[in-house]
Amino acid sequence: MNTIYLDNNATTQVAEDVLAVMMPYFRVLYGNPSSMHTFGGQVGQKIRTAREQVAALLGAMPEEIIFTSCGTESDNAAIRSALMTRPDKKHIITSRVEHPAIRALCAHLATQGYRVTELPVDKNGLLDLENMEKSMTPDTAVVSLMWGNNETGVIFPVEAAARLAHEKGILFHTDAVQSTGKIPINMKNNVIDMLSISGHKLHAPKGIGVLYIRRGTKFSPFMIGGHQEKERRGGTENTPSIIGLGKACELAAKNMEKENTYVKRLRDKLERELLKRIPQSRVNGDTANRLPNTTNISFEYVEGEAILLLMNELGICASSGSACTSGSLQPSHVLRAMGVPFTMAHGSIRFSLSITNTEAEIDFVIDKMPAIIERLRGMSPYWNTSQPACKAQ
Amino acid sequence: MWEYTDKVKEHFLNPRNVGEIENPDGVAEVGSLACGDALKLTFKLDKNKKIKDAKFKTFGCASAIASSSALTEMIKGKTVEEALKVTNQDIAKYLGGLPDEKMHCSVMGKQALEKAIENYRGAPALEAGAKIICECFGVTDLEIERAVRENNLSTVEDVTNYTKAGGGCGNCHDAIQQIIDQVRSEPKTDNKPKLTNIQKIRLIEETIEREIRPSLKHDGGDIEIIDIIGNRVIVTMCGACSTCKASDITLKNFVEHRLKELVSPDIVVEEVSK
Fold first, then answer.
1. Which of B47, B40, B44 is nearest to B25 (CA)?
2. Structure pTM?
3. Which of B105, B134, B136, B241 is the catalytic position?
4. Is residue A391 part of a domain?
5. Catalytic: A324?
């Protein structure tokens, strides 16, 4: 059975060229870049090149790039640094639809004496900047808003939000894990102070991330240790992955147009055809401000996990926003924040494409999905009835 | 990825008895869309008052569908009295087990069965004396009590996993905790099998390791087992405990208490200095 991988917001395949540039750094050029000898030192040169490649994708300066272990570390380092360098300020502004790396961190900080404001979104998942302006206080240390949403692909106006924050002297961080490589980012044209990236979302390996920190922004390190990364992040460099990420960023810049033409066209076709062929289905999230690779579709009266397992039987990989565990009966926090009704929220499926997907794969999924939904609806006591939902709604 | 048994997968992919029986003898609907799963069960009896046919319609995840399928298979051919003896544990067992987070699916099956039989008998929807505790999901005190007792649950989270109660607004968490406390304080009528000496020693060691040492370490202390003679557990307290004036109390009220509770009521803990 062939695997049809439409779960690229979860992780991506490492690109062949990326793997190829990494390989020598495991067994041949395995030296430590901090060593005095040439054997190790020459690896340091390669890390410099990788740093330049990452910086080039972001329109940043190489010294503004700090390599970390993942997006979550970058997010933690950014928020904690903002709080450490502004010890008199105890307020954080974020949104209700952030990734757990920010949400759970803020929830934790809320137990440590910080005040957290989670900005709401509208039914399309969009943010109201006026609302953000009203939430800023003299006590606000940092605003953290994601650039592209992992579940719906909805894009936040983070550049405008950063300007508003700066007018009040507040630091601005964005989790750009999903948007990097999919939409153009140019740090020269905005005032964002800190930005997080994860390698494995753009065809680099897992276990490598980046924290961009604007030159002149005070920084307090999260990982304390050796002098690596100009003493901003201790720990021996993950040399193969850093070099791989450099290559991945170079490729991402080259493929940016393909993401916004080829991938977008496939995504649009998938979305259009599924909505046409499956009654009572709808797209979650604003379709005008959206990453080119993501669509989140709800199929009413069926449950996401059951859909996923039937897709799995056909080798189709995607994700569901709703985790049907009784421990978290709430469906996806993102969809609930958007006020998606329970009838729709439970049966939401996220398809996230990449440049590796083919038209034939999309056609296969378009062909198979209607029967999957029909089969589950055939078992559902709600299909073709007008059963009112329980009062928990 | 949920770890489902082959049996769960098989019942999910090929569910038995999907549908609705026309003019059923018993019918019940439990759960709701908001809860994330719901089950409509119908059954029909033959002239010998045995369940001739049972059908289900389920909205929910794979294990909800598999549990419903299993339930209909299990009750066919039984009288309603026999069918009522099927517990949620039996449903889970029939499927080769369910992940903890999914046990509520088997409970939903059991609830649907009870309600459908009540419907057949013309009994009221609420059990006599039952009171709704979880307003969000309409779970009663008796249902919670039963789940706690039959599955030996100890936390609100467990109760939510098994019954969904407490999974909505969370207002009922205190009430659920009270039910747990009340059930757990009931004198245990269960007869733990008698332990062999080896088993007892192992259980004492495990209990100290898992239940006792972490708490002591948290306060900078520690405990070491010197010897176990019959029901006498001879220990020495180390670290901060060795100089702590309250260590006698810790020893009796905490260490001995936990061992009595978890190993055997006959345990006596004695301290010796090293």
1. B44
2. 0.78
3. B105
4. no
5. yes
